[in-house]
């Protein structure tokens, strides 16, 4: 089984910014393939005729590369190896492990003949001094785990086979994992995947969240994670989470809930989606929805009580795919209806998406089409379901979700 696909969208993005006067920041969940992406990009540069000596790769997950060194030790160490007469490509992997890393990045960026690429597993990278320091001088390339298409390729499955039964493969994808390394563990059995996911989650919680933000009440934090994971696709607010936990005999102030949610989003465990008022055409400040970076993590977060229904899991996967395709995303709401996703595309157009597992009766059909029919503008509207037989209605395109996911 392949360890990774070529991740061509991300490579394409990096190539389009090559030699541009911008720092390339590759961010995303731990183990979502950031280091592999840099390795693939490095291969690409070598194939383009760039010499080995022009490429400088530093992995700051390895303690020997930073322990006992200050940012300026590292800076002068790198500077000493640069070629003066040719462009240099510098890769700093997991750079947030270096205290005052923003000074290192800024110093290298200001140097002549230097193209800087950095990765980090925490949005802290961009919400910190770095963003202020580099305002307008960086581009963030946010990397997600495998899409359904990449997952099938990694498993050696021919995605062009018209007669493939996608449903069981989709269940594997949704129930097991979409994280590149974990997919390569399939041959060793599901237990290995589960152990791997548990280890990643534990590292994120311990290293990126509880230690960094000095959270003492780990139990309260875990309960919030579980609660949000069990409510994928439901509108939530710090207040209603706090009240629900109170009924369960746990007292967590809504301001604390809000902070914890922020940390989880910053570590790319959850993605937060704001509501959009369809009538007033404006973003609303309450009742956001949260989606999980990898639905396989539900097995770790909610354990045996994995109760999330398949409709919400499908919605989660569609959300991530819309994100991969470069959309800005909201959930749409008006007085008497709701639409799953309102998207602003890369070209600035608007699209609406409704997601349902299947339309198996008249009531479901009316509800799903009806939500889109109530929107009285002429922007494209899509209904995505697993149905083999699809039927358009009132200008709404009804598509099979598996084909839609594979239409890259």
TrEMBL record:
<dbReference type="InterPro" id="IPR027417">
    <property type="entry name" value="P-loop_NTPase"/>
</dbReference>
<protein>
    <recommendedName>
        <fullName>AAA+ ATPase domain-containing protein</fullName>
    </recommendedName>
</protein>
<dbReference type="InterPro" id="IPR025420">
    <property type="entry name" value="DUF4143"/>
</dbReference>
<feature type="domain" description="AAA">
    <location>
        <begin position="23"/>
        <end position="152"/>
    </location>
</feature>
<dbReference type="InterPro" id="IPR041682">
    <property type="entry name" value="AAA_14"/>
</dbReference>
<dbReference type="Pfam" id="PF13173">
    <property type="entry name" value="AAA_14"/>
</dbReference>
<feature type="domain" description="DUF4143">
    <location>
        <begin position="207"/>
        <end position="356"/>
    </location>
</feature>
<dbReference type="Pfam" id="PF13635">
    <property type="entry name" value="DUF4143"/>
</dbReference>
